[in-house]
Amino acid sequence: MMKFIKFYILSNAYYKRFQNLFNRHSIIKLIKNPIKWISKNNYELKILLRYSVFYLFINPKLKLIDREIEGMSLPMKQGRILYNYARKLPKNSTIVEIGAYLGRSTCFIAEGIKNKKINFYSIDNFEYQFFIKNQYKPHYKNGYQYRNEFYKNVYRYRNKIKIIKGFSYNVVNDFQNEKIDMFWLDASHRYEACKRDIEDWLPLVNIDGYLIFHDYSENSGNICVKKAVDEKIREGKLKKIKRIDNLLITKKIA
Fold first, then answer.
1. Mean pLDDT of successive 10-residue segments in the chain (254 residues)?
2. Contact 188, 224 (CB under 8 A)
3. Angular region, 163: left φ>0, alpha ψ -120 to 50, beta rest
4. Exposed site from 11, 98, 169, 220, fewest CB < 10 Å?
5. 3 and 106, same structural domain?
6. How many distinct structural domains can be found in the chain?
């Protein structure tokens, strides 16, 4: 029963909330005084009910990606956006992803184009570091482990993805003859790096092509991404289409 709920009814993040809400002590309180328990947990119950209805009708392949691949901060509803935007592209379109991490976003996109002839490039240097105890330490022992984990996760879509290891500012030189229809950026959050990625790749995106940015937020940790993107919006080069939490969808207009 619990496996059914985990796979078909709730995503990983919401399944943990479900476990916290229905732990042994909580169930005892529910049995003793159901009215008080429901009143106390009313907000959490509404969230779980609303999300379970949403999750129940999601493509099972997307649920598999959500369950199997770590994604740091890309929840199912954002992954589904990538899937839907990729799926509606016409054949012979081109998609570029910068920042793949362990392949969660890569798989959401690849699932959307699995029945189409679309060029999909996933670009990453696979050398991640995180700030821990005032020192930069690799999250894994080395970049090879990241890359190996990525390859394992995207293996089922290996015929749909062209994987490029390198820095985006170097790789862009090989794309000067390409025209991009969907550009997904989830790389460095530093202002200079984000601004450079946008300025390097924006000229290669078709007019009316989509540029989708992750970690677009007012929070101090990601404010630099928002600053870099907003500059291009004010310049009249990008138009906001939709925002889902910290994911922003824009369209190139000039």
1. 49 64 80 85 71 64 81 83 96 96 95 96 79 43 70 94 95 95 94 96 98 90 90 97 95 96
2. no
3. beta
4. 220
5. no
6. 2
